[in-house]
Amino acid sequence: MKVETLIKKAQEAMNTKGAKLEVDGVWGPKTIKEAKKYEFRIEAFSDTTKPGTTLSDNNTPSNGIIEPKFVILPDIEFVNRGNYATPSGQFKGLTVHYTVSDRTAKNAKGVLAYLKNNGFGCMVMDEDGIIYIPKNFDVFKNWGYHSGVSQWKGIKNVSDQFAGIEICCWGLNSIVGPYRTVKESDGYIVAGKYQAYTEAQENALINFILWAKSNNPAFDFDYIAGHDELRKEAGKKGDKQDPGGSLSMSMPKFRNLIKTKAAELGI
Ligand SMILES: [Zn+2]
Questions:
Q1: What spacing in Å lies between the alpha carbon of 240 and ligand 1's midpoint?
Q2: How much distance in Å is there from the Cα of 163 to the middle of ligand 1?
Q3: How far is the CA of 221 from the centre of ligand 1 (A)?
């Protein structure tokens, strides 16, 4: 795809989010200014990725936990940054993100390509809860940049200790529903109207966390944080808004829910 076409796609996508750009394929000052409002330059990626290979599609519950549905995209590979900088070499925490994009599988694959092309690296989930990863990527061990400036319980810039999951969703100020409005900032959430995660996404997120804990004992539920929380703790409240109101509850409530479910399962 030509760069001009990619820029036009990005301009169109930003216009659906309220920007008033001329769709001219030129990455000029107005487009740059609008693009800075978005976590990702949405839609501005190649859509030539091949269909993925299903790594696991095991729906048999084990101790109440289903193995997540991972799809490996064989023509995408992240920069190998080695193992997490933790004593176990596996992730200690998890950052919950949203992509600022459409929620389809096609877009999820595009976001993974975007991450790779920009030196980032984390998992990406589509609207059905399927998690896309590149080839040669161990979800427990291989870290990548995804949280930027961030802080949590004394850990600064958490990407080398926290796995990241990008959940496909338009997020704050979406013009696509279903919506969830958050009136109270709740300490860190940016108040406003968000596109809600799908039920399948929330269930898959919870399932991924419980599955990960049962395979990675060093994973600590108190280190599951929203990107918005991590920015707030780093002194930049409001700089990132994900997951905010896209998640059906605040992150403190979400952590409590996870702990309750884990206790019920004995993990
Ligand atoms: Zn994020």
A1: 7
A2: 12
A3: 18
d(CA 216, CA 209): 10
d(CA 164, CA 213): 15
Helix (H, G, I), strand (E, B) or coil at 212: helix
Those residues with Cβ within 8 angstroms of residue 86's Cβ, 6 or more apart along the chain or in another chain: 92, 161, 218
Buried b (16+ CB within 10 A) or exposed e, 226-244: bbbbbbbbbeebeebbbbb
Per-residue pLDDT of 94-105, as tens digits, reads: 999 999 999 999
Residue 62 CA to ligand 1 center (angstroms) comes to 31
Burial call 160-197: b when 16+ CB within 10 Å, e when fewer: bbbbbbbbbbbbbebeeeeebebeeebebbbbbebbbb
Measure 266 CA to ligand 1 centroid, in angstroms: 31
Residues 30-41 have pLDDT tens digits of: 877 777 665 444
What is the H or E stretch that residue 113 is in? helix 105-117
Residue in 164, 198, 174 with CA at minimum distance from that of residue 94:
164
C-alpha closest to that of 84 among 138, 30, 151: 138
Ordered domains of the chain (ranges, CATH): 1-37 (no CATH), 49-265 (3.40.80.10)
Ramachandran angles phi, psi of 116, nearest 5°: -60, -45
Task: Report d(CA 112, CA 78) in Å as an integer.
Answer: 9
pTM exceeds cut of 0.90: no
CA of 89 to the centre of ligand 1 (A): 23
> What is the distance in A from the centroid of ligand 1 to the CA of 144?
13
| % of the chain with per-residue pLDDT over 70 | 88
Give the chain's length.
267
Rounded to the nearest whole angstrom, what is the distance from the C-alpha of residue 167 to the centroid of ligand 1?
9
Query: What phi and psi, each to the nearest 5 degrees, are found at residue 19?
Result: -70, 155
